[in-house]
Design goal:
Blueprint (H helix, E strand, L loop, with lengths): L1 E2 L14 E8 L13 E13 L5 E3 L5 E3 L6 E2 L6 E3 L2 H5 L6 H6 L10 E4 H11 L6 E8 L3 E7 L4 E3 L6 H8 E2 L7 E12 L2 E8 L2 E2 L18 E8 L6 H11 L3 E8 L2 E9 L6 H25 L4 E7 L2 E7 L8 H4 L5 H21 L1
Parallel strand pairs: 5-15, 8-10, 8-14, 16-17
Antiparallel strand pairs: 1-4, 2-20, 3-4, 3-13, 5-12, 6-18, 7-11, 9-10, 9-19, 13-14, 15-16, 17-18, 19-20
Helix pairs in contact: 3-5, 3-6
Length: about 375
């Protein structure tokens, strides 16, 4: 278990503490150059669970909740109270990205092009496709090329949707892993290649499939093939599955389980695998546009330099880039040093040795 230092702060408006000057980014043109754009080489790096309690603490590696088969029909209450839209920002406001680095043992961080939440990539995908989904995202350069993308929400605690049943469905159809009974959420960090860009992506995990051998589950590394995305669907409405498909694609979650209900009475639970044939082409076109946006953003961040603090603001289908007034870093300095390449570290050591030798000769 890792205990983290917290800080409190009031909720802010989207333009809080960002500069007045701005550049405009336009969505990329939908040009197919014939090259295949897909996600390859997906690999697990680490995971953690946020623990309940007053002090912010994570359990590494933690574990997701486990899916439990139960007979239908059943009735669930609608959402009530508050729901958390970003546990990392709620529990650790100064450094929402920091748990990624606490959960990953060994990785060549200097080789990464992007470090981001799955949610941030979905926001950029919405922009690339001209969809109306306002958002703000804070950016910073780490090392020579890595973009640190920090998710930003005006409120990390929201009133629960009184007509929604997603949270009730999750709690009723899953159980905590042994050793994770006090976990509030589970997060997984993976790396993969997106058409030549090395991505490090964090995603919240809803649940996992039970061990097929029926063994008692305890905190351990859960295979990617066992991860589940949970959701609900009203029998009287058609759900838009393309967004959910992109979410599962970017987080590399292979299983979708959804409950079909009428006013909270669930008569059917459906399980599907990712990579449905009728959305493959649509997904590749979105990945192509996302790849181009990430490349443009990376060039902006590199030009801003290590001291640059940029913010993307997407409002009314217009994306603007602002220079933030504050120099607050996305990570503590000791973690930014992890992005130095081995070559630059070697050069720094040579410079230090040369300076030390000069001092000796001078005496």
């Amino acid at each position: 278990m890792v205990t983290l230092q917290n800080a409190t702060g009031k909720f802010s408006k989207v333009h809080h503490r960002i500069g007045l000057g701005a550049w405009t980014i336009h969505p990329p043109a939908t040009v197919n150059d014939g090259q295949k754009v897909e996600i390859t080489g997906s690999r697990y790096l680490g995971s953690y669970s946020w623990l309940k309690g007053r002090k912010p603490a994570i359990l590494v590696p933690g574990a997701p909740r486990i899916w439990s088969r139960r007979p239908t029909p059943f009735t669930l209450p609608p959402g009530s109270g508050y729901q958390v839209c970003d546990f990392n920002a709620l529990r650790l406001p100064p450094y929402p990205l920091l748990p990624i680095f606490l959960a990953v043992d060994a990785f060549d961080w200097a080789s990464a092009d992007v470090v981001a939440d799955c949610h941030s990539l979905l926001c950029l995908t919405a922009f690339a496709n001209g969809q109306r989904r306002d958002f703000r995202m804070d950016l910073q350069l780490a090392g020579s090329k890595t973009i640190l993308c920090t998710r930003w929400e005006p409120r990390v605690l929201m009133n629960a949707n009184p007509g929604g049943y997603g949270r009730s469905f999750e709690l009723m159809r899953t159980r905590p892993t042994l050793g994770c009974e006090h976990a509030a959420s589970h997060h997984r960090v993976i790396t993969y290649d997106l058409a030549g860009m090395k991505m490090v992506v964090r995603a919240e995990v809803d649940a996992c499939l039970p061990d097929p051998d029926g063994k008692a589950a305890y905190v351990q590394e859960v295979p990617q093939s066992a991860l589940i995305e949970l959701t609900t669907k009203s029998s009287s409405r058609n759900r838009r599955w393309l967004y959910k498909d992109m979410q599962m694609c970017l987080s590399q979650t292979p299983n979708l389980i959804y409950g079909v209900h009428q006013n909270g009475v669930f008569n059917k639970v459906v399980r599907k695998k990712k990579n449905l044939d009728n959305v493959k082409d649509h997904r590749e076109s979105k990945l192509r546009l996302l790849r181009r946006v990430l490349e443009d953003v990376q060039q902006l961040v590199i030009r801003s330099g290590p001291r640059g603090r940029l913010t993307l603001v997407y409002e009314d289908t217009v994306m603007k880039v602002y220079q933030r007034n504050l120099e607050n870093s996305s990570l503590p300095e000791e973690y930014l040093e992890m992005f130095q390449s081995k070559a630059s570290i070697f050069i720094d050591l040579l410079d230090s040795s040369s300076r030390a030798l000069s001092k000796i000769e001078a005496t």
